[in-house]
Amino acid sequence: MAAYAIALLQPQVASAQSGVSATDPASAVNVFLGTSGDHGQLSPAASYPFGMLSIAPQTYPNLHAGYEHNAKKVLGFTHNRFEGVGCMGSGGNILIKPFLGDDPDETELLKSTEAAGPGFYRIGFENGISSNIAVHKNSGIEAYSFPTGSKHGFYINLSHTLANGFVAEEHTANANSLRGWVDARTTCGAGVYRTYYYIGFSAPVKFEADADHKLTLRVEGTNNNVTLSLGISSVDVAHAQASAKNNGTEALQTASHTDWNKTLGAVKVSGDAETQKLFYSLLYRTVQSPYLISEADGTYRGTDGSLQKTNKTAYNGWSIWDNYRTQLPLMSLLYPDRYADMVTSIASMYKYGKKDYATQHEPSNTVRTEHAMVVLLDAWRKGFKFDIKGIADSLIAEGNRLDFAKPDKALESSYDAWALSHLMDIAGRKAESAKFRAIALKYKDYWEKDFKDVTKRDVDRMQARGLYQGTIWQYRWFVPFDVKGLINLVGGEQKYIEQLDYFFANDLYNHANEPDIQAPFMYNMTSQPWKSQALAHKYAADTVVQYYFNDNSRGIDPFVNRIYRNQPDTYVRTMDDDGGAMSGWYVFTACGIMPACVGEPAFYLNAPLFSGVKFNFPDGKQFNITTTNFAAKNIYITSATLNGKLLNRNWLTYAELRKGGTLNLALSDKPDKNWGTKDQYITDINAK
């Protein structure tokens, strides 16, 4: 098991390797990627695929994910976080600080060594305390070592959160355990979620009277090594206690590493070793959420707090407004067995209660759920079925609440209305289908009013005309469901291409946020798809210029660098990973495919960053993407074959990928201006 480690706070690979093992991609993951400054808002936490339990240091000063790679001072360890999100982060519950002597405040934890990888985290402090942490599913072990002969204990703050989101808690303590629940606010403080927990201590401890939800525990006797066995649950304390294991960090870490390899092994990439490591580090980021909230016996909590039971698995913890564009479609391809239950869980929100951000009874931390209708349509068209008739009335109610008040909202809501129209058609609700199709068609009026004229002085200004994020230039491309109509609104294909050319030539594109991340692929709908092939490679693997940032600013000092780098300060500054949205964009592009439009089961093609890509599906089928003339400079596709037959179109369907087979792409450093220009996959709201 390789680990990324620091010595004297400098990152390095603990065991060098010339390439990534096909059977051990987890050892290639750098969990410190995106953990410094405002560059991703990520953490090196010990975590498990789609697991709620996520243990990492809380460093000073506070950042969105609770961790700063360059910080030396550690305040303690917290046990959950939503990776990569804004609003000063979310989670950070149950802070545990080891201390020496009599007063916890007099112990300063200064980092001296650190190592981490998928499922584990280790740290040593200058005062001789060290901690070895491992996580597997909802089980965690924290093994603390104290200096010989020292007096020591633990300070526990049950009201700690990353962003002042504490609501309430209850706990019960005895000589060797602490159990209870914590209520905290979800991301951006919109809702409330409850976490049940159990902590067992390997040595007897004495609890001192608590005040303001804070406890001091003193270890009795001469136990220099104390292990904490943790379990969490969204259901109740009994399930949390059942999850707590005491078989040691090594066994837990080994089990976690095995499962991480199964998860990351869904796709194998062949090529440059450093690019492989970056790829698996970013794939790792895409499978942190949503969270598996059901227990082995099928019990789980609905978004109304009710106790439910399923014979499948249930998920919660959504960042759909961000990651419906990339991360969720990636889950549908790589993990279709899991994704079937994720889709059912999204549909279930309409049964038990769904709000754009969060309810007051969430079973886990969560962010926001706008565009769930788009995800449901996309899933249905890919073959993932759910009780659409049973939730039709709730879908309609949400459709009636769509917001068209601002220019960006008008386009976003039109997309939802388009998806809802198709969902109602599937449900047999023809009148409602026609109603929402008419609403979706009105996007043209909004577009003509605010987005057609690009000569106005405010079109390159962030938040102009009340936009939430982005500029008029960036949002004007957001009509993914009717690109044919958009081209006509612009004035025809030639003007559409000219305006896209201007947009990218003048660095008006913003990869620090999601509103226009589909724009580099929008030449694919035209007679010049090679321009999208060039842009895909540029933003995934080459130096770019970025003037726009995720703090809604247009900087005088631009970002000039590669966006995706395998280091703590990766990404454009201020760029959040947003629950796997941005890392998912890279994973798709590196593999050579990208969703054409979420809601349509098709993927555009580009030159992959690897000589070979192999998707290993749960049903045993494989889809291979091979290349001819692969080289770093060969970024254009000149011809293609699918299962040995010539392929002249620049797209594949989801069904073609899942069926298995081989796609071969012939590459060149010069574009072929004929390939992929016929039989274009172009969305058309008027098409059936």
TrEMBL record:
The residues covered by the Glycosyl hydrolase family 92 N-terminal domain are 29-206
Can the keyword Calcium be found in this entry's annotation? yes
Q: Which UniProt keywords apply?
A: Calcium, Hydrolase
Provide the taxonomic classification.
Answer: Bacteria, Pseudomonadati, Bacteroidota, Sphingobacteriia, Sphingobacteriales
Name its co-factor(s).
Ca(2+)
Tell me where in this chain the Glycosyl hydrolase family domain is found: 242-392, 409-668
**Presence of the UniProt keyword Metal-binding in the record:** no
Assembly and partners? Monomer.
Question: InterPro entries of this UniProt entry?
Answer: 6-hairpin_glycosidase_sf (IPR008928), GH-type_carb-bd (IPR014718), GH92_N (IPR041371), Glyco_hydro_92 (IPR012939), PNGase (IPR050883)
Superkingdom of this protein's organism: Bacteria
What protein is this chain from? Glycoside hydrolase family 92 protein
Q: Which Pfam families match?
A: Glyco_hydro_92 (PF07971), Glyco_hydro_92N (PF17678)
Molecular-function GO term, any one: hydrolase activity
